[in-house]
């Protein structure tokens, strides 16, 4: 008998739980997100899509360089009550988040999604995570449903999208299976995006504008750029002014730093 990996078993289970309407909902979310020009826009689109297509009002988007850094994100995107939950979460509960437990980590790595219902079905939670659920999520904020979706970001970074609701059955088997499908597909979309809107703006510049940006990044003056590109110096000034406006940069130095970050 051929052994199957946890990822293969998770995919098979997911396909069995999905109906035509679930695929349609997943497609709607992907359509909502696949035109995002940068990771910043992608975050906003994902949260908005989950609110629209899963009727989830309370959604957060945490990002970090490693899995455990995610919980310390200093500027997460929060919608609904998650924005009000954030100060207490940071001060007291981030280190005890139920989705940072070993069981949740295994689920997030193998299948892209972990839900509170699944975790409690596996057995008792660690005491600290149980306290987080009982005192923070349920007693304080009345959140009976909680789930996290893993999304891969550029440069090996990752995100956890938190979803919460007062109804205990808000995310059933089919919803969780749909989110697992979305975890993979959203990661594919996001991994190739520029991190910032300014970086996205650089990628949309014309070839001549990118030539000017590269020379600005190399420290050349307008006169030197004009000589290198066989342009009038006044034309170079207009190019630089236009590029500053398109990228939102306030100075040549800021533009040069942006251009260098785009090279890495």
Automatic annotation (TrEMBL):
List the source organism.
Amycolatopsis acididurans
Q: Name one Pfam family in it.
A: GerE
SMART domains assigned to the protein according to its UniProt record, in alphabetical order: HTH_LUXR (SM00421)
DNA-binding as UniProt keyword: yes
Top-level lineage group: Bacteria
What are the entry keywords? Answer: DNA-binding, Transcription, Transcription regulation
This protein is called: Response regulator transcription factor
- Domain HTH luxR-type, which positions? 198-263
Q: What is the lineage of its organism?
A: Bacteria, Bacillati, Actinomycetota, Actinomycetes, Pseudonocardiales
**Keyword Plastid (UniProt):** no
């Amino acid at each position: 008998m051929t052994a199957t990996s946890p990822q293969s078993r998770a995919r098979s289970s997911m396909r069995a739980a999905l109906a035509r309407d679930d695929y349609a909902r997943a497609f709607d979310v992907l359509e909502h997100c696949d035109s995002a020009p940068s990771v910043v826009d992608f975050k906003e689109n994902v949260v908005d899509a989950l609110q629209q297509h899963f009727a989830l009002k309370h959604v957060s988007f945490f990002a970090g360089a490693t899995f455990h850094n995610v919980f310390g994100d200093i500027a997460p995107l929060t919608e609904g009550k998650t924005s009000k939950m954030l100060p207490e979460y940071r001060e007291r509960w981030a280190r005890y988040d139920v989705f940072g437990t070993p069981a949740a980590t295994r689920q997030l790595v193998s299948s892209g999604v972990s839900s509170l219902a699944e975790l409690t079905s596996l057995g008792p939670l660690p005491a600290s995570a149980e306290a987080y659920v009982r005192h923070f999520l349920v007693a304080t904020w009345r959140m009976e449903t909680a789930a996290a979706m893993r999304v891969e970001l550029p440069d090996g970074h990752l995100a956890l999208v938190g979803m919460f609701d007062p109804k205990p059955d808000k995310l059933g088997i089919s919803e969780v299976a749909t989110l697992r499908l979305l975890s993979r597909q959203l990661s594919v979309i996001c991994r190739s995006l520029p991190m910032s809107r300014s970086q996205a703006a650089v990628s949309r510049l014309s070839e001549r504008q990118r030539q000017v940006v590269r020379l600005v990044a190399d420290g050349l003056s307008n006169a030197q750029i004009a000589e290198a590109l066989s342009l009038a110096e006044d034309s170079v000034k207009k190019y630089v002014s236009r590029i500053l406006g398109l990228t939102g940069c306030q100075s040549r130095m800021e533009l040069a730093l942006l251009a260098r970050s785009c090279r890495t």
